[in-house]
Design brief:
The chain has 138 residues and is an alpha+beta fold. It has one domain: Tick-borne Encephalitis virus Glycoprotein, domain 1 (Sandwich), CATH 2.60.98. Helix content is 16%, strand content 41%. The chain is built from one helix and nine strands. A hairpin with a 5-residue loop joins β3 and β4. 14% of the residues are buried.
Amino acid sequence: MKQIIVTLSVVLILSFPAAHSESLSQKALLGQEFSLRAGKKISLTDTKLKIRFVSVIEDSRCPQGVNCVWQGNAKARFELSGIKSRPFTVRLNTGMEPKEIEYSGYTVRLVGITPQPKSGERIKTRDYEATLVVSRSR
């Protein structure tokens, strides 16, 4: 019984930092690309800007291994906050405009979304990852 308690204690101690770190916001630097999973939030270093990748609301990109006339488009919803009082919802695209938006002195640009669709397979919401870059507006 004592061995079970010790083993359980060690497992709990080792797993706590990993579980705790997932609840914290990630950090990113201005001017550098960063990736953000659907449902996650990131803070931009040295700013009050936070970005949450809410979801992909449209994905008509050409599947891998298929010849398409048009590359298609992925449209994603993001929440920007930290500078204004309430979160501001934006929709950015990979294959059409708008691909970027200005918000409180910053330009937020969607570089891409992964994974690329595969013919006959549905991508789960939590598997989407957006690549973004944020810079000071000119």
